[in-house]
Amino acid sequence: MTKTGAGEPGPGAGKVPEQQRFIAEPDRAEGDVADPHPQSPDPRLLADVALDVPGRDSYSYLVPDALAGDLAVGDCVLVPFGRRSERGFVCAIERRAPPAGVTLKTIASRRDDVRLPAGLLGLIRWGARYYRCSLGEFLAAAVPAPVRDGARMEVARTVEPIADFAGTLTKRQREVLAKLPAAATPFADVLRLAGTTAGTIERLAEAGALRIASTSGIQELRLAARDEDFPLTAEQQTAVDAVGEALAAGRHEPFLLYGVTGSGKTLVYLELARRTIAAGKQVLLLLPEIALTPQLAARVRRRIERVAVWHSGFTDGERAEQWRRVARGDVDLVVGTRSALFAPLPRPGLIIVDEEHEQSYKQESVPRYHARDLAMVYGGQIGAPVLLGSATPSLESVHNGRAGRYRVLTLRQRPLGGKLPTPIVIDMREECQAQHKRAEVSRELMTRLRAVRAAGEQAIVLLNRRGWSPVVSCQECGHTLMCPNCDISLTWHKGANRVRCHYCDHSTALPKRCPACQQEALSTFGLGTEQLAAVLAAEVPDLRVLRVDADTVGERQGHAKLFGAFAEGAADCLVGTQMVAKGLDFPRVTLVGIVCADRGLSVPDFRAAERTFQLIAQVSGRAGRGERPGTVVVQAFDVHALPLTAALEHTPRRFYDSELQLRREYGYPPFSGLVRILWSGPDAVKVQLAAEEHALALKAAAGDATILGPNPAGLSFLKGQHRWHALIKAPSRGAAQAFLGRLDQAGGLSAKHAVRVAIDVDPYQTT
Ligand code: ADP
Ligand code: ZN
């Protein structure tokens, strides 16, 4: 940490000392500078500012007279910090005597168009404490950088001559006009072409000789949506009434909308959104995937006019403008992925978390928050109902429902009378015997794809692995091509003709010879989406295959384009990774294929069974959503695995009962609170030593918690970093927080040279 010249720690820091000093700081508080001329102890107007630095929550600054009148909590300010200037947020303002012996610096300036709503600041404050980072670090993640930096939208102006203009012009004006292209041309290009000034062009526009148009406005892809003005089903109505009651009372209440795939959860959301807006409040609608936003946004826009889509695909200027629009109250509904939770809505009245079971709600970098869990806290703080929706709720939410903490609203029927798809399970051991080879795709799936093609219907085939082949190894010596930066085998991407690491993106050309034995005996093993798409296209005549995975999606809103094309019938079969499993509503899809359905079960993670169950139930749910019934063809080796059979036979209860029992027995969430500590660094020995030394501190603070490890992480080498981890299992989330508090009291985990220590509260990645 560098020595800086900022002010004293603010009261914000003083109020949460245990948590914020979890990673030990140097003895001398950062930034305190002894003052040769002690200030008068007269009370002064001081502001506590949260800065994007680890450790302390806030630093005190003097408020300049120019701002004294209207500086408010939530304002974004620029302050001197050490030798730099930093942007931060005012989190307290108070008239008090500066402490003797400390020179306080003064706020340099304030951004006039950014002020965090108080409710949002309250949420972020809570989040910083719970997830153990400084308030400023959390704010920096929650408020996009372009907002803090005051980015403006690039307004593109175009110039277009008016064809039948007959007015009088000066000679010079006529010369300029003659040089202009007939079509609309960007303003800057016009100046260059005509060799003239902006003033001249503007006067020509005033004279009526040309038109200047601004193409401002946030550019985004808009999909068409079908009309959905159906009367609600009885089940939908019951759900709407239950939440509507809490809404009308302005009361927080947690709900779990547990509705099978295609049961019309979205319509429930939309009706509740309408009611919230009619009551003068705003709606937050969270989705797990950016891929789902355009489709849902389109459905929302048919009913609600002032909608903001919140995602990372915008330019800086667009993003900042979006934020300011929302903060001004010009938006009634914000739809977006996890960070949309921090949209600065002035009066949020309803929070909806769709597909609440999805792991993408968990952020895997600081701050490591879980958006669903924070949404629940937010609702409690601002007195708003929170509606979690899923066809395959998380074990946590099912447990909360059973314990009576959430009110469970169920949708058992598909409104169109559509039946849940019929499963056909293929035992791939038998299939391989029958085909006399290592079969990847069953004959059943092929036959059914042909039938889909013939009937003019559509299919989705899931394989949760991209690339052509996940393994390249030598048939002579057995050597497997590995990533030099990770303990991971390289995947062959045939189209790109490269082998690639899916963790760090390292890639090289496929070597001709085995790097170990120099023989020309490298061969590929296993199946990825790239190869599967090729196989299907080759085996099923005229099948138009569209592949959707991280490789084909790449660019800005790429998935929206691919899904849009599929919805319009540009392909018969969508092949892809879990991206194709979620939330999409294509009424013409009658067949879903799942290749390697039990693959996820072998992952060493206590959530492996839950994830497999959810993935299979979700992707099967893509079939038969329209009038025609659906079929699911599932290929697996372990065809009797419970997550598989429960998902396919639509008997989720069997899965939840058994899995909750196992979680209880082994002390995993929801029956415990977990914290994961991860040590990482380029030097294996240093990482191990740090972990072993910190283990003593962890054990000393253990109390009623169990410390598992430290030991090498499942992915023991990743992106050039060696990794060790420890898992703390406490009897509850509260107990886990108490453990962290005790650890803090004892001085936290000392800083170690060249070793990063990450604390992950309620971790989802455990490898
Ligand atoms: P979910 O979000 O639960 O997967 P959707 O909201 O996408 O389900 O609804 C599935 C399909 O059923 C959609 O095509 C939707 O338009 C239709 N639908 C929903 N509610 C009704 C209703 N009350 N009457 C008729 N059709 C409905
Ligand atoms: Zn790698």
Structural overview:
By secondary structure, the protein is α/β, with parallel strands linked by helices. The strands form 7 sheets. A 7-stranded parallel beta sheet has the order 11-12-10-13-14-9-15, with helices on both faces. It has a 6-stranded parallel beta sheet with strand order 16-26-25-17-24-23, sandwiched between helices. Strands 2-1-4-3-5 form a 5-stranded antiparallel beta sheet. The chain folds into 6 domains: 21-143, PriA, 3(prime) DNA-binding domain (GIY-YIG endonuclease); 156-215; 234-411, Rossmann fold; 422-468 and 527-662, P-loop containing nucleotide triphosphate hydrolases (Rossmann fold, 3-Layer(aba) Sandwich), CATH 3.40.50; 470-525, no CATH class; 673-761, Alpha-Beta Plaits, CATH 3.30.70. β13, α14 (371-382) and β14 (386-390) form a beta-alpha-beta unit. It is built from 25 helices and 30 strands. The structure holds adenosine-5'-diphosphate (ADP) and zinc ion.
Summary, kept brief:
With 767 residues, the protein is of the alpha/beta class.
